[in-house]
Design a protein that fits this description.
Elements (H helix, E strand, L loop, with lengths): L2 H18 L3 H17 L1 H8 L5 H13 L5 H12 L6 H16 L1 E8 L5 H15 L2 E8 L6 E6 L2 E6 H15 L4
Parallel strand pairs: 1-2
Antiparallel strand pairs: 1-3, 3-4
Helix pairs in contact: 1-6, 2-3, 2-6, 4-5
């Protein structure tokens, strides 16, 4: 089974349970906190994902850790389930899917805009207005600066990429010129 389908299945089950218990925001926070902990503590991630440790050993380590957190009971049981079923290595993908499910539930769309320089606030507001009208969702905007794009913007709406950067336009022109005027 592919990791994407595993992540979707676990995420959907978790969000349904979280909705039933009115814990969606809490579970999302718990998952983010646990992910950050695994990033900060690579040895812990290693213990929880390495097959040389038994499921019982991994569960024991995780149980001790979870006793020190304020995670919801649902989150604690979910993380233990992942360890016991040797699915903890899919946590990052599960959290990504959970965030998508959360966004759908709340009517959000995540948009990332990359520009060579900071966007003028008027342009940013116009872009948000346009995208909210086009998607019929509330835009959660993330801005990034990348001088390599030279000018224009690269916009990612959910999983769709719109590349309006000057560097890409120049690259396309170069390819067209080289392809059409091959004198060799």
């Amino acid at each position: 089974m592919q990791s994407g389908s595993i992540a979707r299945r676990y995420s959907r089950a978790l969000i349904e349970l979280a909705k039933e218990q009115a814990l969606v925001e809490k579970v999302l926070k718990d998952l983010n906190d646990f992910q950050a902990l695994l990033t900060d503590q690579p040895a812990l991630r290693d213990v929880l994902t390495r097959r040389s440790f038994t499921s019982k050993q991994q569960s024991g380590v995780l149980r001790e850790l979870l006793e020190t957190t304020d995670f919801s009971t649902l989150t604690k049981h979910f993380l233990l389930l992942l360890v016991e079923r040797h699915r903890i290595q899919f946590l990052d993908a599960i959290v990504r899917e959970f965030k998508k499910d959360y966004d759908d539930l709340k009517g959000y769309v995540r948009v990332t805009v990359v520009s060579a320089t900071p966007l003028p606030s008027k342009f940013e507001q116009q872009l948000i207005s346009y995208l909210e009208g086009a998607t019929k969702r509330r835009v959660m905007l993330t801005k990034e600066i990348d001088p390599k794009i030279i000018g224009g913007v690269v916009t990612r709406v959910g999983d769709v990429l719109f590349d309006g950067s000057l560097s890409t336009q120049l690259q396309r022109m170069k390819s067209e010129l080289l392809g059409q005027h091959d004198l060799g």
